């Protein structure tokens, strides 16, 4: 017997923490309003601890004021786009908060972006200025991007002994010289003004930007805060280890901005290192640790991890990719805590669902329940106006104040992403009768590798440039460490010679991000095609899955 969800019923409300308002409506505020509250409430408390450096909330306010004054003096006006080409380092929050103070729109360039991707994002967003690091691994891609399009002026910030400002770049010391002591006077913005253009994949292979307003991001932060009512992550002064990339919506919204709003001390690290993470937990008394599944897998693999002192941990979380049940169980056993997973996406800023504190034993594998103030339903993939019964797989649809309203300059893709005000996520799953969600597949062909989105079309476009390639198709295959990694299947032109995976990877190094480089290669005489002659990715995935099962 099929049971349709009754209109207005929300069975998952029973699993919220005491004090959580089920029909929570987040305040219609701006990020600068949120900043003002945090700066006033937590001024002397340490906000950022970075190796060799500490920055208090009050000091961050002064740095944001100085940065905003410099941005205005350079000629940037409210609404202009500022590109941040920065890893996890103090310069990111400094210039993110400076941009918000000046009324600018931030767009992120991932340190993993290939030069072509950088050039595309800069042109598409019409960025007026780039803030980056004075290090070769950051300056080189920007220089190479110039061969693919016009690059705006670049401000370079120091981050180590090997720093060297590139020819033509502006040292940050010169950029904001004379702005010391500037007042923190944020430009008046409306909650519906754009705060962030966050790039995600496009159906044509070109990344597209989700338009996220001040209201979208502030709503996401406040929805998480409401959901976590009464938990340790809401207690000012608690210590969190921040490895999640802050140029990614997960790290930016759920960790940097939410932690900032609640007065946490963020131990910011440039990259994840399992041995260093265990040292940090013991040295700094880390209370909160969240990251992608690959982080937890790496920690579990550390020699002697069961002998390390993890007693300071009070909250652990995972997101960005599906978490294997076996990993969940081993992490819970190691820490004595329940590992809290969840689901979200760039377009939802990224609030969506989360595993409650009192997870029933029969719900293993769930991505949690809808967060307060959000609506999630399962719809027919062929008819998104038809809601499906409990337990039946379909496309997840979501609506709420945190959800983007558009893709930047992509009206057709925007129209295709919505149905009657509901955002169609492209994720396939089901909801049980208690309101717990389960992700089973992705309607889109995206590969989730180590928490990063990898888009097959981009890989295929790049592989097609290799001499002798006739056809190429990329799919995600199981990867013990990353969850998934890309494997590319190639058909050669008649008479063309085969090549090694290493040769292909070297060829792609300047065309794809490191996380997008295929880690497996297979040559075939032919690739499966649909009845109309299109390459059939679904059939190829089924073939590979069958081969694995036979093996």
Automatic annotation (TrEMBL):
SUPFAM superfamilies linked: Acetyl-CoA synthetase-like (SSF56801)
EC number: 6.2.1.3
Main subcellular location of this protein, as a coarse class: membrane
Pfam family, one: AMP-binding
GO molecular function, a single term: long-chain fatty acid-CoA ligase activity
Domain of life: Bacteria
Protein's pathway: Lipid metabolism; fatty acid beta-oxidation
Enzyme kind, highest EC tier: ligase
Domain AMP-binding enzyme C-terminal: 459-534
Compartments reported by the entry: Membrane
Keyword entries, A-Z: Ligase, Membrane
Domain AMP-dependent synthetase/ligase residues, every copy: 40-408
GO cellular component: a single term: membrane
Membrane topology according to the record: Peripheral membrane protein
Protein name (database record): Long-chain-fatty-acid--CoA ligase
